[in-house]
Each structure stands twice: as structure tokens, then as C-alpha cells.
Design goal:
The chain has four helices and seven strands, in the order ααββββααβββ. By secondary structure, the protein is an alpha+beta fold.
């Protein structure tokens, strides 16, 4: 009789594995990605999608059943140049920030090493600005890439809402 040291996976592990396959479905259009990804997000999140034309850009707003919302700002080049969020749960910043996420993560880790609870975070570099805050069950913030702003676009004094 031979015994294997390997056990069958527990039901909890199987459940976690199944859940991990669902997580990518919660993706959002990231900075620099195409406008077509916004419609995919709307369907994946089962969100109400409102689109409005502004001077020089298109604003897409996704509103979830729990009241959370994500706004995606798309320039004439059909790419997302800015994103804002007001959510009940922390959004997946790896998806929201796209290829800019590693720069953000590095700055966030440096801030964490300085100590203290970080309820507010602000990062500004040459081509990435991220501002986020958290309080109880409210996560809010915005991110944008200044080099992608449409011609003539001026960031509102209060930031993106």
C-alpha cells in the first residue's frame, strides 16, 4: 500500500480558487486604455452606464447598485486620461491605474514605511497624479495622467469628482 503525502484540497481552498477566477471580472478601464473597455466594465459590474459629451472629452459614469460610482474621462484619442471613484469598497487600483500602477505602488510603499495610518494619500510625479482617501466604508479618489489631457482641458480646482 502506498500513501501520498498530498491531501485532497479542502472545500474552502476550492471555494477560494473559484473566487480567484471571478476577481478579474471586476476590472475597470485603466488609465491609457481604450474607451471600449468602459462598456465591458459596465456589463461586468452590472452597473448603470451614463455617457455625456463634455467640451473636448467624454465622461462615462458607472453607478453600481450599492451607490458606488466610477467616472472615466476619455479624450478625443479614445483613451482614458483620468478616473475618479466613490465606493463602498476599495477599488482595484491595479486595474484603475493600468501600467501606471507600479509607480503608484512604489510611492504608497514609501509612505507606509514612514509609519502611521494612511487615510489620505497623494502622489504626484511627472505623468501621474493619484489622490485617495478612506474613511469607514467610503473610498474616494482620483487619478490622471497630465500628458494625456485633451487640448484645452483644465483640471477643476477641486480635483476630479
Amino acid at each position: 500500500m502506498t500513501f501520498s503525502s498530498r491531501r485532497a484540497p479542502s472545500p474552502w481552498r476550492l471555494l477560494l480558487l473559484g473566487f480567484s477566477w471571478c476577481v478579474p471580472l471586476l476590472a475597470h478601464a485603466g488609465l491609457g486604455q481604450s474607451e471600449s473597455s468602459v462598456a465591458q466594465d459596465s456589463s461586468r459590474l452590472q452597473a448603470r452606464h451614463a455617457r455625456s459629451l463634455q467640451a473636448g472629452y467624454t465622461l462615462h459614469e458607472l453607478q453600481m447598485a450599492d451607490g458606488s460610482r466610477i467616472r472615466q474621462y476619455v479624450g478625443a484619442d479614445q483613451r482614458v486620461f483620468a478616473i475618479s471613484w466613490h465606493a463602498m469598497h476599495k477599488p482595484d487600483l491595479t486595474q484603475l491605474l493600468g501600467d501606471a500602477y507600479p509607480r503608484y505602488a512604489s510611492a504608497a510603499q514609501a509612505a507606509a514605511r514612514r509609519g502611521g495610518i494612511q487615510r489620505h494619500f497623494h502622489h504626484q510625479s511627472l505623468d501621474l497624479v493619484v489622490h485617495s482617501s478612506a474613511h469607514l466604508h467610503l473610498f474616494a479618489g482620483y487619478a490622471y495622467r497630465p500628458s494625456m489631457f485633451p487640448a484645452g482641458y483644465q483640471l477643476p480646482a477641486s480635483g476630479l469628482e
